[in-house]
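Internal QA ticket QA-208
Title: Verify multi-chain structure generation after dependency bump
Assignee: T.L.

Test input:
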Amino acid sequence: MRTMLSFAAKSLIGRRRRFFFLGLAVAFGFMIMTVTTGLTEGLLTAVREKGAFYFSGNVNVTCYAKGQDDGSMDGRMVLQSIREALGETPVLQRSIYYGNDAQLFFGGETVRQRRIIGIDWSVERRTVDSLNIVAGAFPADGDGRAALISETAARKLGARVGDELTLLLSGTQGRDTGSFVLRGIFKDSSIFGYATYISRPAMNSLLSVPRDYVTDIGLILKRGQNENRIADSIRASISKRAEAFPVAHSRDELQDMTRDDWTGKRYMVCTLDAHLSNIKEVLDALMAICYVLLATFLAIVLLGIANTYRVVIFQRSPEIGMMRALGMSKTRAMFIFIEEAGLLAACSVLVGLAAGMLVLFGVSRMRMPSGLDMFLKSGHIAWALDLGVVLGISMVVCVTTLLAAWFPARRAARIQPMEAMRTEE
Amino acid sequence: MKRVGISIALAAFALGCAFAEPDFKAMLKSVDSLVSFLDTDFSAEYKIEQFKPGQGTSVTNAAIFRRDKDAKYLILILDPPADKGKGYLKIGQSMWIYDPESRRFDFTSSKERFQNSNARNSDFTRSTYASDYDIVSGKEEQLGKFDCWVLDLKANNDEVTFPRCKIWVSEDNLVRKTEDYSLSGQLMRTRAIPTYQKIGERYVPVMLLIVDNLRGKTIGGKFQNETTKISITKPSLSKLPDSIYTQAYLEKVSK
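Actual output:
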């Protein structure tokens, strides 16, 4: 086997001119695949991290109400249900204002906010990495006057860290305002950027609700933990104590369920994937287009390899004949070419991977326009390569190359030794 | 001696009457009734001039049709041409805004700003101070040429646009000035109604000035507030057809 491999290597090196462009094409294909998957995975990871902060975790529980019910969440019951389903686990407890009339005022300027999110600074400090703070800092624990707003909102207001902002929203007793000191500005011009973060007690005071009031309880999961399974078990646990919607798998499903004909109070356990389903669909479509293009590219490479080998085998017929005459079996003769192709594919994959990572590294160093904030980490694309995916693509490339070489190699093995030796190179 | 006693008693009574607070609830009811049209329809043309510091003034003309008895109104934008045909329809607690471009009705709220001005959609409905607010306190105050009672009011429901307000009521039970506050006491806007026009037994402001206390711009080192001036002309109490207060009417006239 070792002799055969060294034979294949020598053959490849000996015919390096012929194989160079072939190997380059395979390496280029693999590089494109590496870059595409690395970027997509990186973009998705960034969106998920930001989304997890914005949507209160990878799995979150909210409460909906119709009719007479005020829709206030029984936080203790939800926490007990989560404990029962998952054991002791850290959770985020938030008080979120979803009304569309929340506004920030400063110096006569105003900006509308999609959400006002009341969080516990001390608890969420650990999950704040995804929030790209560009001025000021994450507020100190217990800072009831602190506010975090996006760079877009700060620019519109003309506000800087330390300025006093007025926040207007409609609480349970009517429209109320609060004064907050701008402690930090984060960079995000995407949908996640139209949110203001203040402390939960301050939020509840503005809403005129009890200090421990919550609207959302969520969990930040570690990589590899199954969102859907966890959501299912929390939902099952909650449904023992209160009415709960089935777990939604997309935003459309979520909206349909809440719109349906029902009254009273119902709990909704939702996954981050469901919240991000629309964004994920776009990325998946993008990925699908890339894969179609790559499949076309691979098909061309496959044809190229097959043709090249046909020529190679024709040119090496005397050599094949000689080996066959000296007693080499058909299978072994065939495998010489297969191994050559395998070695070519392996080398190309390695070169393609290295080149792809180099490109990814280069792209990640570039400062991206703020329109792409949703997909960025600290203003840069953060690429991520999944080992499984890389191995999968490597397998596809290698198998494709081997398949391309298989048929010419089989034909070469079938050549009669005397006939082959008569062929002139 | 008897005469002196009677004189003292009469003087004390007169003094008591002079210093006694009026019935504020009754005053609010009177304030509401003087500017509401519960027994007829009301229509008029409103000219809304919006001043934004640094941006100049924009003018909107609108026709307003009100039927206070049924808590209905329809506002049709006549000018500027870009907004012509746009309409607001309020029936009870429901309110829609109509866009003739897309031919769509969208829900809106009485608390929303009217045409991006400092007026709220609720400014065009009937006055409901007596039913929506409780009186916290009242005091006398001179406001320009008017002797006024200043009433500090607190909303008794969360349907109103402002949960707290102060109103200056002149001797003729007409509101001359209001200050609208948030629940925690932030002054949101100030309104002044210096003159009214009498129509039948009711009153309609001639001009209404609204100063937004939160919106504005610092120009030349001086803060200038956004203001809205509303002038009301051609008021009428003529009966209007029921069909006016419908979505179909808005669609028809907007074509």
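Spot checks passed. The interface with chain B takes residues 101, 105, 107-110, 166, 168, 170-178, 208 of chain A (CB under 8 Å).
Status: verified.
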